[in-house]
Amino acid sequence: MHSHRQLLQSNLAFCSPRLSNISALSPRVVFAAYAFTRSYSTPVIPRPWDTESRLIAPSTKEDGSWGKEVSPSAGVLRVSHVQLGQSERSKSDPGARQGQRRAYIALGSNIGDRIATIESACHVMHDRGLKVTRTSALYETKAMYMEDQQNFINGACEIETFLSPLELLDQLKAIEKDLGRVKTIENGPRTIDLDILLYDNEIYEDGRLSIPHKRMLEREFVLRPLCDLVPFKTLPMPSSITNLQSSLDTLPPSTEVLSPLTPLSSQTDPISSQNPSRPTHLMAILNLTPDSFSDGGLHPTANPVSIIPTLQLYLSQSNPVSILDVGGQSTRPFAPQISAEEELSRILPTIKLIRSNPSFQKLVISVDTYRASVAAAAIEVGADIINDVSAGQMDEEMLDTIARLGCTCVLMHMRGTPETMNKLTDYPDGIINGVGNELLARVREAELAGVRRWRMMLDPGIGFAKTQTQNLELLRDFSRLRDFEGLRGIPWVVGASRKGFIGKITGVEEASERKWGTAATITAAVQGGADVVRVHDVGEMGQVIKMADAIWRAR
């Protein structure tokens, strides 16, 4: 199986022999080219006559035409607009020539485990030849028209299909039936609802189906997820003069915040990242390593029972721990790399023990690893989240594994490896743009692998390939990163606890004594919009988070 990096290299080489050696390109060229290939609309499809220096990427107008000519020159991507007619696109687009079409499907459920049902629908669609290429965030909304029913979970997905509109409708209705939908009354409760919103740029009308969907522009619960995918698309109708995002912006203000939801586990409420009154989750670090930078050897792996009193204390404090981040491989600079077998021997007994104790059933377990095999084994015995410091870059199987497992993941920003990262701190466009663009590339790569957007969380990687000045800027301007185009709505984890830059500023050499400096970073993170804060000193930092929430999170 080719890695995603190899796939990117193949695409670049097809477009231009000068781009065939990806390792010779500057990171800026690679990241920008990748961002274009995974941009808001049609992926780059190379064309035979583009043999010199052009990459063609889709227009941000989202009108289905080829839109941007990208010319690599002296390590810089030069962008200019190219407008092609539909007939030209049909000739040049292999998908169009072979009958493959792109459609957007609304997803909804308000019976049972709503998120699980929507995820099942996506899996069934994919298994039946409706390739799910991207998904929106998920949103919880009150029912319209018939209000006396449970809230809905709504989303949207982008698919590729060879079916005609009516064939696609029939397939979606069959999937609804197979997932248990029984229609009783109009606009009533439903196990699953799959509606065709858009089908390429076509207008379709008959007694059974209308495309574009007739009522989509009046429904925020439809428009908002669709705008996660194609915000700048203009509907293929003569009267349509504005794009979808503009249509969303003109809707009457909602009485309640419509926030993306990110599930943590089946036992806990999801994160609502855009809800201004949301609590900040406390993630406790449990390093089962002998060589972590501040707490190596503190928790013995040979006798995991000894950790039970500590966990009971975590859950009984005034601001209890929500997530336990379990790690068996140190990622401090120059830490020796152990085998996957040894890493598993350190973490699996503890995860199994926690999951066997009924009093810890609501405790979310995150596994801190960059190895796909370790992540899969940990999820198998009861972990809920995969926390990868490399965002899938240190193991090419990781993103495919996350997609297969269907669990939530944390994609952290890092360059290189723990051995090389401290030399990779050059960000020509600034630290916020650098981290934002590189994480956007990781998100696109995860989507390509099949990871759902509602299953992603991000981490700016404080202390990883960052200087002291850059760490401080990330904390100071964190709200800008949280609002970065293409990343908006995805929850953020921030972990600055006991980091070296805190010691340098405060003069505290011993990492375990850096509580006061850590507390300051936590308040900055909460103010900037962090959803989860990862800490060592659970009792003290729990109090700091509770106070910061009282100040910065409206109640």
TrEMBL record:
Upper taxonomic lineage: Eukaryota, Fungi, Dikarya, Ascomycota, Pezizomycotina
InterPro entries xrefs: DHP_synth-like, DHP_synth_dom, Dihydropteroate_synth-like_sf, Hppk, Hppk_sf, Pterin-binding_dom
Record carries keyword Hydrolase: no
Domain of life assignment: Eukaryota
Reactions accelerated catalytically: 6-hydroxymethyl-7,8-dihydropterin + ATP = (7,8-dihydropterin-6-yl)methyl diphosphate + AMP + H(+); (7,8-dihydropterin-6-yl)methyl diphosphate + 4-aminobenzoate = 7,8-dihydropteroate + diphosphate
Organism: Stereocaulon virgatum
Cofactor(s) the protein requires to work: Mg(2+)
Keyword line: ATP-binding, Folate biosynthesis, Kinase, Magnesium, Metal-binding, Multifunctional enzyme, Nucleotide-binding, Transferase
UniProt cross-references to NCBIfam families, sorted A to Z: DHPS (TIGR01496), folK (TIGR01498)
Pathway(s) annotated for this protein in UniProt: Cofactor biosynthesis; tetrahydrofolate biosynthesis; 2-amino-4-hydroxy-6-hydroxymethyl-7,8-dihydropteridine diphosphate from 7,8-dihydroneopterin triphosphate: step 4/4; Cofactor biosynthesis; tetrahydrofolate biosynthesis; 7,8-dihydrofolate from 2-amino-4-hydroxy-6-hydroxymethyl-7,8-dihydropteridine diphosphate and 4-aminobenzoate: step 1/2
Entry-linked Pfam families: HPPK, Pterin_bind
PROSITE patterns for this protein: DHPS_1, PTERIN_BINDING
Domain Pterin-binding residues, every copy: 280-546
Keyword rRNA-binding in annotation: no
Protein name per Swiss-Prot or TrEMBL: Pterin-binding domain-containing protein
Family: In the C-terminal section; belongs to the DHPS family.
